[in-house]
Design brief:
- The protein is of the alpha/beta class.
- It folds into two domains: about 325 residues, ABC transporter type 1, transmembrane domain (ABC transporter transmembrane region fold, Up-down Bundle); about 240 residues, 3-Layer(aba) Sandwich (Rossmann fold).
- Helices cover about 65% and strands about 10% of the residues.
- The chain has 22 helices and twelve strands.
- The strands form three sheets. A six-stranded mixed beta sheet has the order 6-9-10-3-11-12, sandwiched between helices.
- Helix 2 crosses helix 12.
- The two termini are about 65 Å apart.
- The structure holds adenosine-5'-triphosphate (ATP).
- One of its GO terms (molecular function) is ATP binding.
């Protein structure tokens, strides 16, 4: 199938092209080599059985017309000869029927296994990709790759498109047998293959291009759908239904146009093949008729070649049809590859250092600078030390870099410059698992998975219900959870939409507390909470903070008062630090923010 592949990759600048992709698939196929070998061994009798049938029919005609026949019929009478041919035909039919079923089952089975393996690898890989990747990749795009693209690859196998090898083998077998029968007619038919192949190659290249484009548009469509469903309340509140529908229509139309192009090129291929099969039969009749008139050809062989003319282009037509699917599959592999080759930039060191089991909790930032984009620093040359057990509040205007500090601390991003250490060990020298057990993080809008409250607290670890209850009792949360309709087994709807922000944060408290981290990192919820939940949060926080180092993005005065030192950030720089009283007397940014809070504008 080499003549069909390899055109479109140049546009994408991917060295190695389709062969590279096939090699990639090959790596997965190696796991199933026994099944594959069996499937390929079955190909030979299958292709042979298909190619030999026209010869047998040609021989029948020669036998009846008393023309010279092949050696295996020469010694037989007409009746014996016909019986023998009928028997041979029956054998070829039985071979084709039985082997084709087994062969296609084997190939599909392997194909589905490979697809499942790729899907799993893709998912595993996406989960370890750095945050910077998610910052620049829309969710819809990732979802399309994990679903539609993997599915397109699965289709290649499910529809038996990999049976393409049968067609290639059949074409080769037919070509060999044709040459053995009559070389002039064989040559004529094979020469006809050249322009057809050229045309098909061209249409396939166009198809591939349109197919890639249509998948890109589908990604955009999915991104838009996903955003609109997630933000449906904003869509409705701001009356954006018509405008968003207009945006959707535009992408939908573009998608439609690209799909249209793929259909056009696909149809062009089928049309070319229909046309060429007729031309081939006509050419065989003309050249063959001329040979028959010159007594250089028997009627039997001419009949075989009329059948060959159809049989040769049949597998080619099949090939083209399957190839369309394979092209979509290759496009899918290409897009999947793009993700699989994304580097996992935040890795564990080869020999990670171990944090002390007891005590500690000292955090040290040394000349740390960081930017989401290289030219724009969100954190500039931060230097500070937080002593074990010390509680720090981070405050500053919006966009000052508070969240960035905590993201760096748990190594969701790496600094461009400088060093962050915990208990004297550079966090890059720690296993990420250890670091994240040591540093417990509670984000502003804690994410809850579908499941129940209990599973959202244990998150797959083997804590018993008793252990969870012991923690929630310590945090004074047990009563709140027990009062929910099904207590710890109350189902959590998607993203926790049946719980309030405050309630979600309380669950996040329990989730972190049970892991007993040495350092607590907390981004307080900004939403105003009702008095009851606020009180619960404050008591739980009080317990959580005991004997732990804590860094809190503080939005509440009650929290700020309780901390040892306050760090005031502005434009990524630490501009003030000290206790509440010290900072108030300094009359700087903190004092200003504090005054604003009293006027009801918030410190965060
Ligand atoms: N994922 C991101 N990609 C690119 N830029 C980002 C990203 N997250 C934050 N920024 C930028 O980095 C700067 C610091 O943002 P950060 O979220 O740390 O501020 P913050 O002080 O936590 O703000 P807020 O109080 O509003 O949460 C801002 O200018 C912001 O626009």
């Amino acid at each position: 199938m080499g003549f069909f592949v390899g055109q479109y990759s140049a546009k994408l600048g991917r060295p190695g092209g389709d062969w590279q992709l096939l090699k990639h698939l090959g790596r997965y196929a190696v796991h199933y080599r026994k099944l594959l070998v069996l499937a390929f061994v079955l190909l030979l009798p299958l292709a042979f059985a298909s190619a030999i049938q026209p010869v047998l029919i040609g021989q029948t005609i020669s036998l009846i017309r008393q023309e010279p026949v092949a050696a295996f019929l020469a010694q037989r009478s007409l009746a014996q000869g016909l019986q023998f041919i009928a028997l041979l035909l029956l054998v070829t039919v039985i071979l084709r029927l039985s082997l084709q079923g087994i062969q296609s089952y084997l190939i599909q089975k392997v194909g589905q296994n490979i697809t499942a393996d790729i899907r799993q690898d893709l998912f595993n890989h996406v989960l370890v990709l750095p945050m910077t990747y998610f910052d620049r990749t829309p969710v819809g795009k990732l979802i399309t790759r994990l679903t539609s693209d993997v599915e397109a690859l699965g289709d290649v196998f499910a529809t038996g498109a990999v049976g393409i090898l049968i067609d290639i083998f059949t074409i080769i077998a037919i070509a060999v047998i044709m040459f053995m029968e009559q070389w002039i007619l064989a040559l004529v038919l094979l020469v006809l293959l050249i322009p057809v192949t050229g045309l098909i190659t061209y249409f396939q290249a166009q198809f591939r291009k349109a197919n890639y484009q249509s998948r890109e548009e589908l990604s955009r469509l999915n991104t838009l759908i996903q955003e609109n469903i997630q933000g449906v309340n904003i869509v409705q509140i701001f009356g954006r239904e018509r405008y968003n529908s207009y945006l959707f229509r535009k992408i939908n139309q573009r998608y439609n146009r690209e799909v249209d192009k793929t259909i056009f090129h696909d149809s062009a291929i089928s049309a070319t093949l229909e046309w060429i099969a007729l031309v081939a039969t006509a050419v065989v009749l003309i050249v063959g008729g001329w040979l028959v008139l010159g007594d250089n050809l028997t009627f039997g062989v001419l009949a075989s070649f009329i059948l060959f003319a159809q049989r040769l282009f049949d597998p080619l037509r099949e090939l083209a049809e399957k190839f369309t699917l394979i092209q979509s599959g290759l496009t899918a592999v290409e897009r999947i590859q793009e993700i699989l080759t994304q580097p996992v930039s935040i890795r564990d060191p080869l020999v990670p250092l171990i944090l002390p089991a007891q005590g500690g909790g000292k955090i040290h930032f040394e000349g740390v600078s960081f930017g989401y984009k290289n030219d724009e620093l969100a954190i500039k040359n931060l230097d500070f030390t937080i002593q074990p057990g010390e509680k720090i509040a981070l405050v500053g205007p919006t966009g000052a870099g508070k969240s960035s500090v905590i993201r760096l601390m748990c190594r969701l991003y790496e600094p461009n410059q400088g060093r962050i250490s915990i208990d004297g060990i550079d966090i890059r020298q720690l296993a990420q698992g250890d670091l994240r057990r040591y540093v417990g993080v509670i984000l502003q809008d804690p994410f809850l998975f579908s499941g129940d409250i209990l599973s959202n607290i244990v998150l797959g670890e083997s804590y018993s219900l008793e252990a969870v209850e012991a923690i929630t009792q310590q945090l004074n949360l047990h009563e709140f959870i027990a009062s929910l309709p099904q207590g710890y087994h109350t189902p959590v709807r998607q993203r926790g939409s049946n719980l309030s922000t405050g309630q979600k944060q309380l669950i996040a408290f329990a989730r972190v507390a049970i892991r007993q981290p040495r350092i607590l990192v907390l981004d307080e919820a900004t939403a105003s909470l009702d008095v009851g939940t606020e009180a619960l949060i404050q008591t739980a926080l009080q317990t959580l903070l005991q004997q732990r180092t804590a860094v809190i993005i503080a939005h509440r005065l009650s929290t700020i008062r309780r901390v040892d030192r306050i760090f005031v950030l502005k434009s990524g720089q630490l501009i003030e630090s000290g206790s509440h009283q010290e900072l108030l007397t300094q009359q700087g940014l903190y004092a200003h923010l504090h005054r604003m809070q009293f006027q009801g504008a918030g410190v965060g």
